[in-house]
Amino acid sequence: MIFVSLIWIFPLYWLYLIKDGGRNGKGDIFLLLNSNNLTTLICPYPLPPSRDNMPKPALSKIVEEQIKKPSPIRQIMKMAERKNIINMGLDPDDVISFGGGWVNHEAPEEFRKSYIQVCSDKKEFHKSGAYSATPGDSDLRDLIANYEKEIFGIKDLTCDNVIIGQSSTQVTHDTFICLADPGDAILLLDPTYANYPGQMDFALPNSKILHLQVLDPATWTYLPDVNKTIEDFKSIFSEHKPKLVLIPSPDNPSSKMIHPELLSTMRDVTKEAGSFLLIDHAYKTQYFGDSPPKYFSWSPSEHENLVTLHSNSKWARGLGRRLGWVEAAEHVIDGMERIQQCSILCPDSLHQMAMKAYLSKALEDGTLKQYVEEVRRSYEEAANTTISAIDHHLGKPRLEPDGGLYTVMHVGEDSDEFVLRVLKNTGVLFIPGKGFGESLKNGVRISYGPWVGNHEKIKEGMERVGKYLGKN
Question: Beta 244-248 vs 276-280: how paired, if at all?
C-alpha cells in the first residue's frame, strides 16, 4: 500500500512523500515541487513505518489469556447494556433485571451522617487524606472484632486477628497469595462464585482447581446426601492434597448454607494436613431463620487454619464505598500486611474514619444489631416473594434460599440460549448458570437483591416469563 503525504517546507516549495515501505529495495520516494520544476529524490533506506502501522506492545500472557475467556456473567451483563437493549427493540426502562449481584437496602442513616461529619469538619477531612497503617486503623479493627462478638458471638477476636483492605475483592486476591503458591491445588464447590477461577489465575498461576459437586442437577437438590459429599471431599483431598479449600456461605449463586457437619469435616481435615479453610462471608448478615449456623461464630484464635473474608458491600450497602477485611490467626495477618504493603499500601482513610464513628455509636446504643436484624428480615421476605412467584408463574425446579440474594432455577436447556431468548421476548434478565459450574449449565441464577424494596417487580418479572413460556 502506498501512502502520500504533503509537507510545506518553505515558501513556494512542497515536499511530497510517497511511502512504499521500501519494497524491492527502492526505498521511499520524495518529490520536491515548486512552481517551475519537479525534482525526484530516492531515499536509500526505508523510513520507519507510520505510527498507525507500528506494532502495539504485547500485554502479559496471562492478561491476553483472560481477555480470550471473559466471564460469562460479564458477557451477559454487557449484552444487557442500554444500547444493546435498544438494538433488541426493547425499552431499557421496561427491562426487569434479576442479574445484579447487589443489595438495595438503605445504608444506616447514622453511617451516612458519619461521612458528613468527617467531610464537613476541615481538620477531620484533612486527616482523611493521610495514610493509615497498612493493616488499617487499630481502633476500627477493635470495633470490627466487637461487631463480630455482638452479632455472631465470636470470642477471643482482637485487632491482631483483623486486617482491613480496599475491598473484599482485593483482600481475596491477596489472601490467595498469602495462603498458597502458584501450582498448588485449590478446592472449590460446584457451583460457586464465578469470579474465583479468574482471581486464582491472576494470583496463583498454574494452580489446579478442583471441584466438589454440591448440587445434583438431576434432582435439583443441594447436598442431597451430606454423608456421601463428606466422603467425596475426603477422597478428593486425599488424592490431591489441596492447600486451600474455599467455601462461600451463604453461597453465591445458590444462597444455600453449607451443612455444619461438612464444614466441620473440612476444617478438621485441612488442619491436620496443614492446609487452610477459607470461608467467604460476603453475605454473612443475610442469613435466614431465627439464628445463624454455629460455624458463623468460629474464631481464628481457636482454629489457626481458618481464614474468613468480609465486606462492607452487603451488610451496609457499601458496594461503591469499597472496604473489606480478613479475620485470621496472627501469623496470617502478618503475611497479609506484608502483601498489602505492595498491593494497596493502606486502606482508604475516609471510609475507615466514617465506619469507626458509626460502629462506636451503634455498638454502644444497640442500633447496629437492630439494623442488621431489620435488613436480614427484608431479604428473607424478598426471597419468599421470589420463590412464590417462580412456583406460581413458572413451576420450574428452584432452590430455597438459606440467606443471601439469590436462588437458582432449572430451565431444562442451555442457560446461555435461554437467557438470551427470554430477554429478547420478555425484557426480563436472568444470569446463565454455566459460569458458576458444570452442574448449573442448564440453570439460571436469579437475584432478588435489587428488588428488596419493590416486590411487585419480582412478581411482574416472573409473570412475564411465565406467559412467554406458556405456563399461563
Answer: parallel
Per the CB < 8 A criterion, the answer to whether 331 and 300 are in contact is: no
Q: What pLDDT, in 10s, does the model give residues 373-397?
A: 999 999 999 999 999 999 999 999 9
* 357 close to 118: Cβ distance less than 8 angstroms: yes
CB 223 within 8 A of CB 229: yes
Cell triple for 181:
503458591
Q: Quick: pLDDT tens for 216-235.
A: 999 999 999 999 999 999 99
Q: Which amino acid is at 194?
A: A
Measure the CA–CA gap between 416 and 42, rounded to whole angstroms: 59
Q: What is residue 415's three-state secondary structure?
A: helix
Q: What is the DSSP letter of 56?
A: P
Q: How far is CA 41 from CA 17, 29, 49, in A?
A: 10, 6, 19
Q: Give per-residue pLDDT as tens, 183-192.
A: 999 999 999 9
Q: Is the distance from CB of 179 to CB of 244 less than 8 angstroms?
A: yes
How far is residue 178's CA from residue 297's CA, in Å, rounded to a whole number?
Answer: 23
| Domain 109-366 fold | Aspartate Aminotransferase; domain 2 (3.40.640)
The third-level CATH classification (topology) of the domain covering 71-105+370-469 is Aspartate Aminotransferase, domain 1 (3.90.1150)
Grid coordinates representing 103 are 443489595
Q: Do the domains spanning 71-105+370-469 and 109-366 agree at the CATH topology level?
A: no
All structural domains of the chain with their residue ranges: 3-53, 71-105+370-469, 109-366
Cβ atoms 233, 212 nearer than 8 A:
yes
Helix 61-68 / helix 196-203 crossing angle, nearest 10 deg: 170
